[in-house]
Amino acid sequence: MHARGTQRGQGETRFSLIFPTYNPGPALAKTWLEIRSFLDQTGSGWEVIFVCDGCTDGSPELLDQLTEEYCHTVRVLRYSPNRGKGYAVRYGLAASRGRWAIFTDVDLAYRFADIVRLAEVLEAGADVAIASRVHPDSRLILPPALQAYAYRRHLQSLAFSWLARRLLPVTQRDTQAGLKGLSAHALRLVLPHLRCDGFGFDCELLTGCIRFGLTIDEVPVWVRYDDAKSTTGLQTTGAMIRELLKIRRFWKNAPEIALEMEPGIAA
User: Backbone phi, then psi, for 150, in 5-degree steps?
Assistant: First the structure.
C-alpha cells in the first residue's frame, strides 16, 4: 500500500469522504474538478480519500498530479491487485479520520447536494444514513434514451433488495444505493466484523448495523445516469446472491458479537 497526503494541520476533520476507485479512465479528471469545487466552497472540515483498488489505468498517478495542491485534505491510497468494492470501502473507512465517514461512487452519480444532505442527517444524530432511490422525495435525472435502461436497473434493484430482505435482517428497500455514511462510533462497532469484498458489502454493512442496534436513516437523493454502464449482469448478480448467503451464514453464527457490544446496545 502507498498513500500520499497528510492531515490538515489546523481544525477538526468532521467528515471523511471516501471514493472507492477502480480504473475510472478519463472521467476521473472531470470528477476531480467537481470535488475540488466542493472543497473550495465548503472550506475546512472535510477530507477526501481515494482508494485505488488495484487500478491499472494510471489513476493513482493522475490523482497525485491533480490533487497536489490539496495534499492536506486529499489522500490517495492504493494497493494491488484489485480486491473488490467492499474491500476498497472497508480500506477507506479504516483510514478515515473524521467524526463521520461517508462513501460514494467515484462517478458522482449522487450530487454533492445529496452528500451534504446525508452529512446533515448524520450530524443531527443518526448513527447511519443511507441514500434511498425509492424514497418518495427522490428523483431520477437521465436523458430520454436511457429510460429503458433505468427502468431495468430499477427492477433489478427491487428484486435484489427483496431477496436481501428475505435472507438478512435488513428492512430497507434500497440496499445498494452508492451513498452511505456512519458515525465514528458506529464504525468502531461494525467495521471489525465486516468481511465482504464484493458488491454485497452494502448488505453486510446494514446487517451489522442492525445487529448492533444502530439507527439507520434513509435519505432522499437525486440520481443521475449519464450512460448505460452497469455492473448488474447475470454473472455479477449470481456472485451477489452467493455473497448474501455468506453474509447470512456469518452473522447467524456470530454470537460472540453480542459479548463485544457496548453497554446499552441491544442485539
Answer: -65, -40
